[in-house]
Amino acid sequence: MSVNPATGETLRSFECATEVEVQAAVARAKAAQTEWNARGVEARIRILGEFQRKLHERKWEAARVITQEAGKPYVEALLTEIVVVLDSARFLIGNAYRLLRQEDVPHGGLAMKTKSGCLVREPYGVIGIISPWNYPFSIPSTEALAALVAGNAVVVKPSEFTSLCALELAKLLHEAGVPTDVFQVVIGDGRSGAALINSAIDKLVFTGSVPTGKRVAQTAAARLLPVVLELGGKDPMLVLDDADLEVTSSGAVWGAFVNAGQACLSVERCYVHRSVHEKFVEACAEKTRKLRVGNGLEPETDVGPLIHERQLRIVESHVDDAKAKGARVVTGGKRLPELGSNFYAPTVLADVTHEMRIMREETFGPVLPVMAFDSDEDAIRLANDSDYGLAASVWTSDRARGNAIAKKIAAGTVMINDVITCFGISEAPHGGVKASGRGRTHGKFGLEEMVCVKYVDAERLPGVKRVWWYGYSEAFARQMEGFVDAMFARGVVARVRGALRSAGSYVRKGRV
Ligand code: NAD
Asked: Residue 113: what pLDDT?
């Protein structure tokens, strides 16, 4: 069922796709993929161009669907979803041909100089995509565009909370010229997702929570299905003593509350140097109090609702746990029932510790917990004291200091003096380490996930028997010792001696 989280209005009801229906969709995709691949990259790039044109033309319509179904302010739907997809198309249109074409592999080893090799990038076949509700348009779109341009067919199982956004994507792709069987959407909950993993797909790109990701990985492992896992985050923000507090506090507030804190890249933990901690907390609180919470379709709204009441209860339980263990609520810390059942006040917490759930588990809500640190080493230790490793940010006026700290943080991405926007850089790989996932989406590495690399090797002297073929003997063993020396001995003299000793191997007796 698709429900507007701001108003509770039912937008549309759906039946979940059954196992048989999912299998049938995948079978149709498989049958259609051969012709799609045969069209070639350039033809597919032209279709991507058409998709980009149509999406640009209908940006208002698509952004409205996103706001209605996912609750985020309209301007966020436009900037963090539509623009991300338009730009991802721009990247693929400009680079897919170069990145997917055949690539020569020069051989460095002396013994292999007579061969020439190349890499051929081939589509997997059918890529299954299982996606979450928080970026219901940009996540399946960016993944699907990369899969499609590489010659795969795609079957998407969107979140059961945001099916309309996926159908919007399907409509645009089909109108642009992607055959209906080459891109399909199967609607449903976790059971339909599980059916997709057990179907005949050739690879899965899963985006969602860590617990579901672990289940998905187990199911996929049973049939050795390759998977990309884009999972949850608990991103730290490190504010050093030389940071510009006016800019940094605005960055923290946006990073914690954009999409009501329901971003995998949200600022979920904020560490501030003790010398500026109080000033920073006050600046964040002051800016947070100014945020307007409400229906995302209202142009003045800064922060929308949470996706559903269950999510709100998780947020509430993390804040309650923190309060019970001594955290100070600087602002917020309560539901806003006057706005609807899914609204929670943007909240700043101080005096938090790593004993609190708010600093250890993904909260996925509008809460900015702030903790003081004493040195750069202390900040790095706190940032890395987490099961997660999606992204992090370092805020400083000293770029070299920021770079040095970035190298020591265990994360897929570290931003210096910014948050979250790495997701909108189409060239940048997106993905995590530790529990935050495996593999990458976006950019060159995201495109590489959509292809199998085949190595094709050709002998330049097909009329000559290889020296290492049968006809082994005592003399041949000595010759081969010489051959190894010719390649790897230290010093020119030893190498030349080795080469001379090996020379007879080409004309040896008893060669088969
Ligand atoms: P979720 O794990 O509950 O669901 C994700 C998807 O998996 C949904 O489509 C759901 O129907 C499906 N699913 C559920 N059970 C399944 C099963 N057993 N087999 C197959 N599919 C199943 O996550 P969510 O609540 O939709 O999304 C929020 C989570 O996603 C957060 O943890 C967030 O950090 C994460 N996320 C990560 C990224 C990233 O790029 N790393 C991006 C966005 C969201």
From this structure: 92
165, 207, 388, 445: residue to mutate for ligand 1 pocket, most atoms within 8 A of CB: 207
CA-based nearest residue to 127, from 213, 42, 26: 26
Phi then psi for residue 330, to 5 deg, are -80, -40
Q: How far apart are CA 127 and CA 210, in angstroms?
A: 21
The token duo for 10 is 């039912």
Atom of ligand 1 nearest to the CA of 212: 2
* Closest C-alpha among 383, 386, 384, 385 to residue 395: 383
- Residue 511, pLDDT above cutoff 90: no
Three-state SS string over 418-459 comes to: CCCHHHHCCCCCECCCHHHEECCECHHHHHHCCEEEEEEEEE
CA 220/CA 214 separation, integer angstroms: 10
Q: In sequence order, which residues have a C-beta less than 8 Å from that of residue 472 and are 6 or more positions away? A: none
Q: What is the pLDDT of residue 348?
A: 98
Beta strand 203-207 with 347-350: parallel, antiparallel or unpaired? unpaired
Task: Note if the pTM is more than 0.85.
Answer: yes
Q: How far is the CA of 483 from the centre of ligand 1 (A)?
A: 56
- The residues carrying an active-site annotation are 230, 264
In the block, which residue shows the tokens 């903790």? Answer: 371
Closest by Cα among 195, 196, 169 to 183: 169
**Residue closest by Cα to atom 26 of ligand 1:** 132
The answer to whether 451 and 101 are in contact (CB under 8 A) is no
Q: How far apart are the first and last CA of the chain?
A: 71
